[in-house]
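User: Can you predict the 3D structure for this chain?
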Amino acid sequence: MKPVLFIGNKNYSSWSLRSWFLLSEAGIDFEEVRVPLDTPEFAERIGSISPARKLPVLLLDGQPVWDSLAIAETVAERWPDRRLLPGEAAARSHARSISAEMHSGFVALREAMPMNCRAMGRKVTLTDAVMTDINRVIAIWADCRSRYGAGDGWLFENFSIADAMYAPVVFRFRTYGIVLPQAASRYPERVMKSKAIQNWLAASESETEVLEADEAGQ
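Assistant: Here is the predicted structure, written as structure tokens:
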């Protein structure tokens, strides 16, 4: 049975992007079902899709898996041949740590810079808290590329759950024009070269829904 991934709007839903990108970049065949956020359709359907009433949800052999990090770990476990976690123990622990850090942290960055793929040139106030988050992301990217990265440009030797977790930040930095030091600039370039990411971006630009809460900045 083909896995089914329920996602929200591609323009706004950073959590949906994480799960979608993981499956797509890993070459896992799945069915995509988009349920636009903050709509009557969402309110009507979400209760039967997600126990937590949030997206994304991966339906795997009839069993729902919700929360992007739980989905990532489940996918890595189910398809070990895709090597979505590093093989070496220290690198694997590191990948899990930075993935969990993104999952639970960076609150200032999220609030100040909502993901909005089709917007460009947005300007927001970069408070000390936001800059602390930005600098932490930059440090993570530079450190992983220096310690574990190989020639293909991902954070670790191969594409991993860590890349899926940080992909929305690449879009955020793109939208809000965050200038990156050279040590961290090549990683976003690698993410944007992904065919899966380009497909997501094209689909996001064709969406017509507008979520006012995510239309921050000028």
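DSSP finds nine helices and four strands in the chain. The domain at 4-81 is CATH 3.40.30.10 (Glutaredoxin).
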